[in-house]
Structure formats: C-alpha cells, structure tokens
Design a protein that fits this description.
It is built from nine helices and nine strands. The chain is α/β, with parallel strands linked by helices and 272 residues long. It folds into two domains: 92 residues, Leucine Dehydrogenase, chain A, domain 1 (Rossmann fold); 106 residues, 3-Layer(aba) Sandwich (Rossmann fold), CATH 3.40.50. Helix 1 crosses helix 3, helix 1 packs across helix 7 and helix 7 crosses helix 8. GO terms for molecular function: methenyltetrahydrofolate cyclohydrolase activity; methylenetetrahydrofolate dehydrogenase (NAD+) activity; methylenetetrahydrofolate dehydrogenase (NADP+) activity.
Length: 272
C-alpha cells in the first residue's frame, strides 16, 4: 500500500501544474498561488516516500501505463507521467497498442497486468478508440492497482466517504485547498463541470462529511453544467466562497462573476 500511495502522490503531482488558484481579500489585492510550486513540493514528498520504502527492503514501485492509438495529447501526457515517475524513483513502462486493438485483447492485457506481482500501479490512458467501452476497461483494472481511481469500487468508496483511490485532478484540487489554508467548512462552493472523472468527484470531496473515514470539506456545493443558463451560473458564483472551473471552457467564468474575497481554482487542462 505504501508503494501505491507513492504512485498516487506522483499522479496527483502530474495534475497540480494544470491548476491555478486565485484568492484575495479584495479584488485589487489578488494573490496567485502557484499550482506548479505545490506540485514540486508533492514531488519531493513522493521522492522521500519512495526512498524510505526501498531502504526498508521493499522492491521499487512500478507503474504500468497502457496507451492505445496515436493521440498526440495522450502521448505527451503519458510521457510526462513516466518522466515524473523516474524523477521520484518509480520505475515505469508504457505499453503501446495500435488503435485497432479489440476490446477483448485489451481486457486480456489488463488481466495479465492485474496478476503480475511486479506491477504496483496500472492505468489505461483515456480516451480510448470509439469501438472500446471505456467503462468496461476502467472496471477491468484491479481496484488495488487503480492509480486513476476510475474503477467503480473506488468511485463507490469515494461517494461513501471511505478510503479509496481518488482521481488525481480532484485530489489535486483538495490538496491545493488544504495546503493553502482555504476554509471549506460551511462555505458556498460552485463547481462548473460535472464530468465523472473531474467535476463530480471534486463536488463529492468538497461537500462530504469531514468526520468520516475519508474526510470531506463540509461545504455547500452547487454543480453547474452545459445546460445551466449563464445568468443562473452568475447568480451562484456571485455568492460563492470558492469557485472551481472544471468545464474545460475558456472564459466560462469571468472576473465580474466572482465576489471579492472568494477563491478561484481554474483547471487549465480538462481531459475527461
């Protein structure tokens, strides 16, 4: 489990650079908190965790990444993951498969990786070709090796406030809030975006009970989506203490929609 926690911390780090948080006591005195700086702090922590694990006599953690097709963004993203893994002392491999691979062949590969004792963490890079059922693939990954936190068991445990593998971007958002001291207890929060891998988990983590096994933020959360009228969205953001823009739409939320003193977390990358 310690090896898996190091892998999760690494993947959490890979998301932090995509976030920028703005908080201010007044609009004229805005402070920009660097997600990149926080990411480097987490990388240092992951490196120390890995070294402690190896020095204790355990094998070095290993991450397997399955990459299907030739999507340039996916290839770039996976390269960043494996480079970050190497930087903190985690070994990794990228298994490349042609876009015409059948779902059955991909499921067979995942089964082999699930049962390979050398593999501590496993992720299948999304998106997948149209002929492959992404949900079936995510659910085929062993929940104990599910670094992305996409398996239905991990999603269910997250929703029940139990310890679980959390999706990296939502976990990264929570780490930004925690590490920068942004209060959430009883606060109004707007999450713009309801994707199953980003917006929904962020809302879940922010509103759930802070006294439970997996502590939540105890905030009052409003979720907006593509059918939320712009004026209604403005109404909610104007009274929000925290706004998380996770819709992947540039300029969806503008400065005039944010009240003074609020915190704004903008996810510059939204790939789910």
């Amino acid at each position: 489990m310690a090896a898996l926690r190091s892998l999760r911390k690494l993947c959490q780090h890979s998301q932090h650079h995509a976030c920028k948080l703005h908080t201010s006591a007044a609009r004229q005195a805005a402070v920009v908190i660097s997600g990149k700086k926080l990411a480097w702090q987490i990388r240092e922590e992951a490196r120390a965790d890995v070294e402690k694990w190896v020095i204790a006599g355990h094998k070095r953690p290993h991450l397997s990444v399955v990459l299907v097709g030739d999507n340039p963004a996916s290839h770039s993203y996976v390269l960043n993951k494996t480079r970050a893994a190497a930087d903190v002392g985690i070994s990794s491999e990228t298994i490349l498969k042609h876009s015409d691979i059948s779902e059955e062949e991909l499921l067979d590969l995942i089964y082999k990786l699930n049962t390979d004792h050398r593999v501590d963490g496993l992720l299948v890079q999304l998106p997948l070709p149209d002929h492959i059922d992404e949900r079936a693939i995510c659910n085929a990954v062993s929940p104990t090796k599910d670094v992305d936190g996409f398996h239905v068991v991990n999603v269910g445990r997250m929703c029940l406030d139990q310890s679980a593998m959390l999706p990296a971007t939502p976990w990264g958002v929570m780490e930004i809030i925690k590490r920068t001291g942004i209060p959430t207890l009883g606060k109004n929060v707007v999450v713009a975006g309801r994707s199953k891998n980003v917006g929904m988990p962020i809302a879940m983590l922010l509103h759930t009970d802070g006294r439970h096994e997996r502590p939540g933020g105890d905030a009052t959360v409003t979720i907006s989506h593509r059918y939320t009228p712009k004026e209604q969205l403005r109404h909610h953001t104007k009274i929000a203490d925290i706004v998380v823009a996770a819709a992947g739409i540039p300029n969806l939320i503008t400065a005039d929609m944010i009240k003074e003193g609020a915190a704004m977390i903008a996810l510059r990358l939204c790939f789910c």
